[in-house]
C-alpha cells in the first residue's frame, strides 16, 4: 500500500538536509536541551505557526494551542503546559496570541452551532457578553471580529495571571511576564495589545489601560 503521507515524509527529509547543511550540529544541540524563553498560548488554526511568524528556530518557543486560544481554569492540558513552562523550563514570557478572522470567534459572533466545540467556545461567548456594549457599537462584522479577537486575548491573559503557577512564580520573585498579541492573516503583522504584566499588582491597572485603548480604537475607522 502506498503511504498516503509520503509527501510529508519527503518534506521532512528535505528540511532535515537543509538544516544540517546550514548547521551540522543543529539536531545534536537541539536534542541535548530545551531552554525556551517563551510560552506561546495560541489558536489551533493551521495558518498561525508559532516559531515561523516570529522568525525563530525550533526549540525557542514552548507551545500550547487550542481553538480560539482559551485559557480555562478547568483545562488540565493548558494548566499542565503552563506549570511545566513556568516551574521546569523557567520561561520568562507567556504570550497569549489571538488572530484576526478566527473562525471560533466568528462562530460566537454569528451564534452559530458547530457541535461539541460550542461548549469550548462558551468561554469566548462569556468574553463577548462581558464587552457587549463595546462590540455592539461597531458598525461592521469584520471590526467586531477584530475587536473580539483582541478582547479575548486580553481576557485570557487575565486568566493566565490568575493561575496558581503564575501567582506562585511572582510570589517567589521569579522573572515572568504575560502578554497579549493579535496576528493578522492579511499582512502577517503582529499587533501588540499593550497588555504586559510582570507582577500581580500590575494586572488590573494594565488591563484597564488596554481596554481604554480599544474603546478609543472603536471610535475610529479601520486604517
Please provide the count of β strands: 5
Sheet with the most strands? 5 strands, mixed
Total helical segments: 10
CATH class of the largest domain: Alpha Beta
How far is the first residue's CA from the last residue's CA?
53 Å
Class from secondary-structure proportions:
alpha/beta
**Biggest sheet, spatial arrangement of strands:** 2-1-3-4-5
Structural overview:
The chain folds into 2 domains: 1-33, no CATH class; 35-218, Carbonic anhydrase (Beta-carbonic Anhydrase, Chain A), CATH 3.40.1050.10. The protein contains 10 helices and 5 strands, in the order H-H-E-H-E-H-E-H-H-H-H-H-E-E-H. It has helices at residues 6-22, 26-32, 50-53, 76-88, 103-110, 117-130, 132-136, 141-161, 164-171, 203-218; strands at 38-43, 61-66, 93-99, 177-183, 190-197. It has a 5-stranded mixed sheet with strand order 2-1-3-4-5. Helix 5 crosses helix 6 (117-130) and helix 8 runs antiparallel to helix 10. The N and C termini lie far apart (53 Å). The model has no long low-confidence stretch (mean pLDDT 94).
SSE layout and pairing:
Layout: H1 6-22, H2 26-32, E1 38-43, H3 50-53, E2 61-66, H4 76-88, E3 93-99, H5 103-110, H6 117-130, H7 132-136, H8 141-161, H9 164-171, E4 177-183, E5 190-197, H10 203-218
Parallel strand pairs: 1-2, 1-3, 3-4
Antiparallel strand pairs: 4-5
